[in-house]
Specification:
Elements (H helix, E strand, L loop, with lengths): L1 E6 L5 E6 L10 E3 L2 H12 L2 E4 L2 H10 L6 E4 H11 L9 H9 L19 H5 L1 H12 L19 H23 L4 H21 L1 E2 L2 H12 L10 H14 L10 H10 L9 H4 L6 H18 L1 H7 E2 L2 E2 L2 E3 L9 E3 L20 E8 L2 H10 L2 H6 L5 H5 L13 H14 L5 H12 L1 H15 L17 H7 L28 H39 L3 E5 L3 E7 L3 H20 L8 E6 L7
Parallel strand pairs: 1-4, 4-5
Antiparallel strand pairs: 1-2, 2-3, 6-8, 7-8, 9-10, 11-13, 11-14, 12-13
Helix pairs in contact: 2-8, 3-7, 4-7, 8-22, 10-13, 13-14, 15-20, 15-22, 18-19, 19-20, 20-22, 22-23
The structure holds a DNA duplex (12 and 16 nucleotides).
DNA sequence: AGATCAGGCGCC
DNA sequence: AAAGGGCGCCTGATCT
């Protein structure tokens, strides 16, 4: 059972029940209180809700205390379907999908809601009705393709027009179901992506437990007391002073300026090509260790310091905005707050409420296990049936170790090189071992790389598809080995970006694209798996009641739960990981073990 | 003054 | 210990 939903301004909306093939199963109905109507039907029938975008509608429901079990996010699914055809960046709104369906001119997506401050009247400006009203304000009722006549009824949108949108929603949904059914894995992908959108909104709503006090203590310990005005914290200023003393130059250098640092090194007779940490580490000068320490602390201060806390932490919670499908591989991105780049040292500030625990779970060696399951290489899969995959592979690499490295280290290097397209120095030798002992696993990623180099698309297990190469890339790589233009083809995924040299050769462009598609099949399938895990875990946690998913970072989840439920959450995590493996790969010897820690503080996990 | 680019580094 | 791909966000420098 499904129910299509269109929101109106003012909290009302329109609903229509659908059969599982998307056909209307009853009359449309308008309601004055959409949240209440959804809550009532969720209790009665537990339908799959079909709506344009969870990100715009669901936060309002959560504010009203309403949660739902399942949904179909039309925009996310439209993106996946377009992507499967190699059509990246085309409009994905319901109106656009509707226009494509009818062979009419396709309107551009309306711009995203202006600014989304971390707190404030967020939900009014980002609600679905406002989104649609903004569409009409921008383009007129029929969209830009129809000449954009003026909007008669002003910026708002009432129940009448919600009913009109409902008609488009029903039609677009039915068409999506038809297309999804033709693509293996896609039904699961659409469901998992939609479940992810629910998790993302709920995590943004619930927030990650965060102690601003602990953060302040940590910052004070590392940087000195919080400075006033725009001053540098005491310890940072002291380092800057010592850096200048070490250079001993007449004109002072600002350690935040790479250009000035490079000049300073040149002035003392030690020119450097850049001021990256790994470059500086090779330079023997007393300023180097000071600069490295300065960079580390400065980053903490500017990216996750007191200003960050003022902006993002409220009421003991950090509430980032997650962007489902924000990365082409299916990983999530975030919008503000840098939730996926929180420095490890700051995990000290993530603390469970009194009487509650954090269940921190991370998938061990996820990407090589995914490769094992994808490739169907029996010897390799046997290793991936073990708790420590690299250790299980190490027999094959015995005797390859130089210096102090173990065979396990060598196995890990070989695997990472295969999955990421590295291969300098000894990695080449280790790759040869991998190729001879695990030919199918090796061939799987090689085939993905070759596909990329000839401009083909590659897909994840469930069908998520990489973006096509740009026109610039095609032009460059079809012209032979002539040096290319001025970065004209750069920008799209898997193409050489800026960097020191603007000149990109055809060979470089080919290799870069090959590395991208080689990595894509593994990273995107790992993201498939992680989404399936998340969906399964969310369902199990709902049965337990109070536990909440509060953090998700690629292959790691954190659940905030009453302490007495922590063991049940732990079991739910293990069961969900197993379920995810089964959903993606069916019967496979490969296991996807989770390392789970029950802690009061995130920093105490592993 | 505001927008954009480049360099750099945090996370997986 | 690192390598690779993927991101977001900061500052300084430069452009408009």
């Amino acid at each position: 059972m499904r129910i299509a939903v269109a929101a109106a301004e003012g909290g009302g909306g329109a609903l229509r029940p659908l059969a599982d093939d998307g056909a209307p199963a009853g009359p449309a109905e308008t309601v004055g209180d959409l949240a209440a109507a959804i809550a009532e039907r969720e209790r009665a029938a537990g339908p799959r809700w079909v709506w344009p975008a969870t990100a715009r509608l669901y936060p309002r429901l959560l504010e009203a205390g309403v949660r739902v079990a399942r949904c179909h996010d039309l925009e996310l699914v439209e993106s996946l379907l377009l992507g499967h055809q190699g059509r990246y960046g085309e409009p994905r709104s319901v109106r656009a999908a509707w226009a494509r369906l009818r062979g009419e001119p396709v309107p551009a997506d309306p711009p995203p809601p202006q600014e989304a401050p971390p707190q404030g009247s967020l939900f009014d400006t980002s609600s679905d009705a406002a989104f649609d009203a903004s569409f009409e304000a921008s383009f007129g009722e029929e969209g830009p393709g129809a000449g954009g006549r003026p909007v008669a009824e002003g910026p708002g949108r009432g129940l009448h027009s919600a009913a009109g949108e409902l008609e488009r929603i029903v039609a677009v949904h039915a068409e999506q179901l038809r297309r999804v059914a033709e693509l293996p894995g896609f039904a699961l992908l659409a469901a998992a992506e939609s479940a992810g959108s629910l998790v993302a909104a709920e995590m943004g709503h619930d927030g990650l437990p965060w102690s601003a006090e602990r953060q302040d203590e940590l910052l004070t310990e590392l940087l000195g007391p919080r400075p006033t005005g725009g001053m540098r914290p005491r310890k940072l200023q002291a380092l800057a002073d010592r850096i200048n003393a070490a250079f001993g130059l007449r004109t002072p250098v600002n350690p935040d300026s790479p250009a000035q640092i490079m000049k300073a090194f040149a002035a003392v007779g030690l020119p450097v090509t850049s001021t990256r940490a790994h470059v500086l580490k090779r330079v023997d000068h007393p300023a180097v260790p000071l600069l490295l320490e300065y960079k580390e602390l400065s980053r903490l201060h500017t990216a996750h310091g007191w200003t960050w806390a003022d902006t993002w932490v409220r009421g003991g919670r950090f509430r980032p905005e997650y962007v489902v499908g924000g990365v082409v591989s299916g990983r999530w991105a975030t919008n503000g707050g840098g939730a996926l780049q929180i420095p490890r040292v700051l995990r000290r500030a993530v603390v469970a409420d009194p009487g509650w625990s954090l269940v921190v779970a991370d998938a061990a060696q996820l990407e090589p296990r995914v490769l094992a399951a994808l490739a169907g290489d029996r010897a390799f899969a046997a290793a991936a049936a073990e708790g420590d995959l690299y250790a299980a592979l190490s027999e094959a690499f015995r005797g390859t170790a130089s210096d102090g490295a173990t065979a396990r280290d060598q196995a890990k290097i070989a695997l990472l090189s295969a999955m990421y397209g590295g291969g300098t120095g000894e990695a080449v030798r280790l790759l040869a071992v991998l190729k001879s002992r695990f030919p199918q696993a090796f061939e799987y990623v090689e085939a993905a790389a070759r596909a990329g180099e000839r401009g083909a698309l590659v897909r994840s297990r469930l069908g998520r598809t990489c973006p096509p190469p740009s026109a610039g890339w095609r032009r460059l790589t079809s012209e032979g080995d002539e040096p290319g233009g001025d970065g004209d083809g750069a920008g799209a995924s898997g193409e050489p970006g800026g960097g020191a040299s603007r000149q990109v050769t055809a060979a470089q462009a080919l290799r870069s694209r090959g590395r991208f598609t080689r990595n894509f099949v593994v990273q995107a399938t790992a993201a498939d798996w992680a989404l399936a895990l998340l969906a399964a875990l969310r369902r199990r946690l709902a049965e337990l009641g109070r536990p909440r998913l509060v953090f998700f970072q690629h292959d790691e989840v954190v659940v905030h739960a009453p302490a007495e439920l922590a063991d049940q959450v732990r079991e739910a995590v293990h069961a969900s990981a197993e379920e995810a493996g089964r959903l993606l790969f069916g019967r496979t010897p490969v296991v996807f073990p989770m390392e789970v820690a029950v802690v009061d503080c995130y920093a105490d996990a592993k």
